[in-house]
Predict the structure of FAD-binding protein.
Amino acid sequence: MIDAARLSKLKAAMGADKIHDLPGERLDAYSYDCWPVTTKWRQQGSVPYRPDAVVMAQSTADVAAVMDWADANGVPVTARGLGSSVVGGPIPIRGGISLDLSKMTAVLRIDHENLLVTAQAGLNAGQLEAHLNEHGYTLNNSPQSLHRSSIGGWVATRETGQFSSRYGGIEELCSGLVAVLPGGRLLDTGTVPRMAVGPDLRQLLIGSEGCFAIVVEVTLRIFRLSPARRFQTLTFDALDGGIAAMRDIMQSGLRPFLLRLYDVEEARHAMVDHSFARPAMFLGTDGSRAMSELEMNECLDICLRHGGARIGERGVLAWMERRFDFSTIERILNTPGGVAETIEVSHSWSGISEIYTALKRRMAPLADEVLGHFSHAYADGVSLYIILLGKAANAAAAEARLHEIWRVAMEAALESGAAISHHHGTGLVRTGYVHRSLGSSALLLDLVKRAIDPKGILNPGKLGFTRKE
């Protein structure tokens, strides 16, 4: 509980209209995000983690004022963008301040010569994409949550999008950051293309989940809209053939912007055909008309060598139209006993089949459907995305099932040597597994946290930082 007298000083400094501390639905709303477990909390009328106050920041100065006050008073601060985290990232598990950045939405500048855009961290990414499209540009970063996530959230979670096999994740696309440290100090990384002046400090904040600083401005690399795109849907005799084709495409130096492989169970959903009986691949190339066609043909040659068969554009084009659709999972979760979850891991090419087999086998008793696809491919490995759909007796039983799904999945990932997260981040659900996943390198993470945030006020309990100050 925050002392009212201390909070009154913050209200005086910022303006009382930006701070909400009366108990009720407004505070309760900040106890949830898009993690399915929080949906079950709502259905049970449970509010296990409530902030003491919500601050609606409208400027970098507002964020600095909060960070100065919170550090001086030892009050936890949990940043929140648009609340689209699916792992409990912005849940304030030790109360304190929920710092809402959703009013910080300005596009500050477009640099036409250097192809950069700078915007405030709370801006809806889909709105930024639409704004850029009007000027002939694109982010070429397209997560399923494009229209419900903020660009600051992208940085916090080390997000990546559906076109990453060509354009990379946020770690490649972010050119610079402005952030506020505990105590209200400002940090600006600058926006040079590359430097050799110590470690890349941008990467210290990308994926830090609001545990080191609050990102307030983001500069992203942008691209001119592609003049041509080519698409193809393929099927494979066996899933291993599709995996081998993905590997050979990436190791041949080809970079299709779209490269996704579905197992049979998920292919039925992706193709909207419940009789579909083969693994399916969605493939897309872009660039000039000549280059996109040449790259597509090279990719197809590799796929055909691994047992692939072309079946036309229709499947992938239909998916492109509905790729932001969450309705299946949301419809299931909206039923009190509904169980739906998504878990993404990554592994080397030599290890990906092992973790896929383990997760499919271990998840089978916990869901009616266990779906899997491979995307975000690299020369040395690929991500695996598992979707679970099922039902339980009621909301409490569904919550218990979701927790068990995560426990089993994380143990399987750790046993196989997979990364426990590829692009959703760790949030609350994975925080207990962070140190085991990082091994000896977790020591460095802890040392950085203690140096930057010695009082532990920033998003406590996340990213493996479970100590209490």
